[in-house]
Design goal:
With 120 residues, the chain is mainly α. The chain has one domain (28-111). The chain has helices at residues 9-25, 28-32, 34-55, 60-86, 92-111. 32% of the residues are buried.
């Protein structure tokens, strides 16, 4: 059982995903689209934050609930990145890479958060 948040593979993967999206958010054209930038950034931030919050709840059912919140945030980031692609802020390969990483993170979080989360 994980004693610290940083021991969870799903949290580590969420932070890797966050780091992969951040450079896209830092692009000048993306930054100029204030609403899209803010929405994407906040959703990206909330993925790992929800995992952390759920881990600290102290029970498996609550932890799983927060993993589902993270899943929703992953879907929002992907949707916002697709919008950004349509607006020309990122190319097809950048989008494919992030969507693939998002799918892996989503599936990992629901299948096996890694090193087990809290127990009742």
């Amino acid at each position: 059982m994980a004693q610290k948040l940083e021991e969870l593979r799903v949290y580590q993967t969420a932070m890797d995903f966050w780091r992969s999206v951040k450079p896209i958010l830092d692009r000048p054209a993306y930054r100029k689209d204030c609403d899209l930038h803010k929405q994407t950034s906040e959703a990206n931030d909330s993925i790992a934050s929800n995992i952390a919050e759920g881990f600290e709840q102290g029970s498996d059912p609550l932890f799983v609930n927060y993993l589902f919140f993270s899943k929703g945030s992953i879907a929002e980031v992907v949707t916002r990145l697709r919008e950004a692609h349509l607006k020309g802020y990122l190319n097809e390969q950048d989008l494919k890479d992030r969507v693939s990483a998002a799918e892996g993170l989503r599936d990992q979080g629901l299948r096996d958060p890694g090193t087990e989360g809290p127990k009742d």
